[in-house]
Amino acid sequence: MAFDLWVREFNEASKLENEVNDMIFARTSLPTSGPETQRHMSVARRKITILRTKLEILESLLSTLPNKQPI
Length: 71
Prior knowledge:
- The chain is mostly helical.
- The protein is built from two helices and no strands.
- This is Syntaxin-51.
- It comes from Quillaja saponaria.
């Protein structure tokens, strides 16, 4: 069960990481400033914060997995 939860969280984090990367690359096609750029960057920052939380959850779930080995 803990493994399934970890895999689910990992998949969500991976998807989110791809979205953040896409947003960073899309930034180059936006104007240097303005409301559209500000909204874009605000969404990117929010997704990065969520990704950070997901990574913390993944790290904490590692301790619940059976037969864990030191990294």
